[in-house]
TrEMBL record:
Top-level taxon in the UniProt lineage: Bacteria
Protein name as catalogued: Putative thymidine phosphorylase
InterPro entries documented for this protein: Glycosyl_Trfase_fam3 (IPR000312), Glycosyl_Trfase_fam3_N_dom (IPR017459), Glycosyl_Trfase_fam3_N_dom_sf (IPR036320), Nuc_phospho_transferase (IPR035902), PYNP-like_C_sf (IPR036566), PYNP_C (IPR013102), Pyrmidine_PPase_CS (IPR017872), Thym_Pase_Put (IPR028579)
Class of enzymatic activity (EC top level): transferase
CC per GO annotation: cytosol
Record GO biological process: pyrimidine nucleobase metabolic process; pyrimidine nucleoside metabolic process
UniProt organism field: Croceicoccus marinus
Higher taxonomy: Bacteria, Pseudomonadati, Pseudomonadota, Alphaproteobacteria, Sphingomonadales
Length: 512
């Protein structure tokens, strides 16, 4: 007799219900997000809620994402909407059938909570956390918890070395045949100061190896990669980077595209959104990328000033001592140099404006910013001294290489090797702020200047930013230009000018 009523099948797995894909054309800045209709049967049966972390499977590929719901006609109940980043990652096509499931529990979040409550993390905990971050298992909320947990706690050599090692192990590594591989890093916090492209050109023209991976802007109007990108491609993969270095001795590329420290690149995105820069993660970020790039000797530039990232010589000494101590755990030589951080270095603030300054120095133009030129020569000379030449001779060698055109030739060769040189653009909209009275330039508020440049559109708008017309100690007459705001749209120019008007002491003038 056939049994009546519902039956429970226990010997066959239940196949996940598929959903049709729709590309939404939304840019999320790399954040992995998926959308479903509020009446989606899969969402209801799985118990998904807004901001649930889900695992998306498509054609053998998978990705973790944060779920949001729609209640209008954007999606049908049997559809899932993908933004551009996730669409590319999954190689999806409109109408493809994919599956959305609960991911495995994120066990390493318990380790993050340990840190949030103020405890030190051992190597195994940090390795678990960083491995999960590097594979995209953390949501932005969870990443923010990790970043802020470190931001509020004091430096510890053992813990910072463990974080550095975890970040290093999560990515690729480069090795070079040279016994001496040179590098330079600036801790940032000072607008402009675009010495890196100049230093790479000088040091490699001297015959040394300098594979430079650089960051995009975190809290500034431009990072080195942003400024370099307006002159040459920087999104090179590991193989392309190696070819450039083998051909020319050096490069200036974006570190985020070569996976030398992929967890760090993810964390930088969160730090940018929070506008914070944790010292522990700063140290781990610097050292993991230098070690992954194969560096043996690193010059560390620490600009010191009241409105720079490093406020005092005592703070610089503490941070540099921590960097040196952690680097020693990996047998990496780090030499700190304290530099003047009281005012921007160069005339331009913003990717294209900083690139114009770099080229002016390389081309020995009469109006090239002298302070950028001198700082680049000084730092290059110190790096050449690290290479083992006669002590103190490096600066003269660096000056000669810049003055006779070898640095320009090498820079152009590096640009061509990276994909071709382009002249930086100029912004279509400009407005100049003039001195309201005759006065002496007494101080710069670096942070507020950076804010104005960002409101003008930098670094997203490459030609946006600020060009400075004065330096500390200069005297100006009433009506003379102090700085010019550059923008690519009227709205951004208006935002920047309104903020500048509300902060008239961004460049403080003192009576004569």
């Amino acid at each position: 007799m056939r049994a009546s009523g519902p039956q429970m099948l226990t010997d066959q797995p239940v196949a996940p219900h598929g959903l049709r894909v729709r590309r939404l054309g939304i840019e999320t800045g790399g954040e992995a997000i998926v959308f479903m209709h509020a009446d989606c049967p899969v969402a209801r049966s799985e118990g998904f809620a807004t901001r649930t972390r889900v695992e998306v499977h498509a054609g053998g590929r998978r990705a973790l994402a944060t779920l949001f719901f729609t209640t209008n006609g954007l999606l049908d109940p049997d559809e899932v909407g993908l933004p551009n980043a996730l669409w590319r990652q999954l190689h999806a096509g409109d109408g493809d059938v994919i599956e959305v499931r609960h991911p495995q529990p994120l066990a390493s979040m318990s380790d993050v909570r340990v840190k949030i409550y103020g405890h030190r993390l051992e190597q195994d905990r940090l390795t678990r956390i960083v491995a999960d971050i590097a594979t995209g298992r953390y949501s932005d909320v969870e990443l923010a918890g990790f970043v802020t947990a470190f931001a509020g706690q004091t430096l510890d050599v053992t813990e910072t070395a463990a974080l550095t090692r975890a970040m290093l192990e999560a990515g690729d590594r480069l090795d070079w045949p040279d016994e001496l591989v040179l590098d330079k890093h600036c801790v940032g916090g000072l607008p402009a100061n675009r010495t890196t492209p100049l230093i790479v050109a000088i040091v490699t023209a001297a015959g040394f190896t300098m594979p430079k991976t650089s960051s995009r802007a975190i809290t500034s109007p431009a990072g080195t990669a942003d400024a370099m990108e307006v002159m040459a491609p920087v999104n090179l993969d590991l193989a392309a980077m190696r070819r450039v270095v083998e051909r020319e001795g050096g490069c200036v590329v974006w570190g985020g595209n070569v996976r030398l420290s992929p967890a760090d690149d993810i964390l930088i995105g969160v730090e940018r959104a929070l506008d914070v820069d944790s010292e522990v993660q700063l140290v781990a970020s610097i050292l993991s990328k230098k070690l992954a790039a194969g560096a043996t000797h690193v010059l560390l530039d620490l600009p010191v000033g009241a409105t720079a990232k490093v406020r005092s010589p005592a703070e610089a000494a503490r941070l540099s001592a921590h960097l040196v101590a952690v680097a020693a755990e990996f047998h990496l030589s780090v030499t700190p140099v304290l530099t003047d951080g009281t005012q921007p270095v160069g005339s331009g603030i913003g990717p294209a404006l900083e690139a114009h300054d770099v080229l002016a120095v390389l081309r020995r133009a009469p109006d090239a910013p002298a302070d950028l030129r001198e700082r680049a020569i000084d730092l290059s000379g110190r790096i050449l001294d690290l290479a083992g030449g006669p002590p103190g001779r490096g600066r003269a060698q660096a000056s000669s290489i810049l003055n006779d055109g070898r640095a320009l030739d090498k820079f152009m060769a590096i640009c061509e090797a990276q994909g071709g040189f382009s002249e930086p653009s100029t912004a279509p909209l400009r407005y100049t702020i003039s001195a309201p009275r005759s006065a002496r330039v007494a101080a710069f508020d670096n942070r507020t200047l950076a804010r104005i440049a960002k409101l003008a559109g930098a670094p997203r708008s490459k030609s946006a930013g600020i060009s400075l017309h004065v330096k500390l100690g200069a005297t100006v007459a009433r009506g003379e230009p102090i700085f010019t705001v550059h923008a690519e749209s009227r709205g951004e120019l208006d935002y920047a000018l309104a903020f500048a008007a509300a902060n008239p002491d961004v460049i403080r003038l003192a009576s004569l």
